[in-house]
Amino acid sequence: MLLKRVLLLIALLSALQSIGQDNERSLSFWNTLKSHCGKAYSGILEIPKEDEAFGGKTLVMHVKSCSENTIRIPFYVGEDKSRTWILTMADGIISLKHDHRHEDGTMDDVNFYGGTATNEGKADVQFFPADVHTQTLIPDAATNVWWITIDETSFTYNLRRLGTDRVFKVVMDLTKPIETPDEPWGWKD
């Protein structure tokens, strides 16, 4: 009986230690991203190069707003300032939402879709499978998985729609900050 209790206690302590380590990984990712707050970067569409909406256009991300639990990153595609990636942190888990606005600042009908990581991820990558809101709002996106990577030189925003050929990848160069862009559509400080 005593041996079972000791083994159970060891297993519990091991699980708690693992949770703490995982939380450190998501916090490391979070803090690396926050270290870019206030800076803007340019990038390229890596996949698919022939995409009509993004291909050949100037791509800019601006890590515009950072608080303890929220990071807002407007993403510009040429003159289109409608997109903002919103990352939130709760209990060591990160969520990604997409805020889409019209030029007059009003919300798009397709808005705040995205997902929440199913675990604490890693220090350099976080995955976000489509959540219920996304599945309801955009039924074809029910199998979407977004992921973001970050290291010393690049930030990537990625999408894969499982069961289809849909793949999307933007690579932003973190080695060369650029001039801060104009306000995104609908932005209110």
Sequence of secondary-structure elements:
HEEEEEEEEHEEE
Strand residue content? 35-45%
Shape assignment: globular
Instruction: Give the CATH level 1 class.
Output: Mainly Beta
Mean pLDDT equals 89
CATH topology: Lipocalin
Return the CATH architecture. Answer: Beta Barrel
Query: Segments where pLDDT lies below 50 for 5+ residues?
Result: 5-21
Number of separate helices:
2
Alpha-beta classification: alpha+beta
Number of E-type strands? 11
Oligomer status = single chain
Distance between the termini: 60 Å
Q: What is the number of domains?
A: 1
Helix content: 10-25%
Protein name: Secreted protein
Keywords: Signal
Signal peptide: 1-20
What does this structure look like?
- Keywords: Signal.
- Residues 1-20 form the signal peptide.
- This is Secreted protein.
- The longest helix has 33 residues, at 2-34.
- Strands 1, 2, 3, 4, 5, 6, 7, 8, 9, 10 and 11 form an eleven-stranded antiparallel beta sheet that branches.
- It contains two helices and eleven strands.
- The model is unreliable at 5-21 (pLDDT under 50).
- It is an alpha+beta fold.
- It has one domain (2-173): Lipocalin.
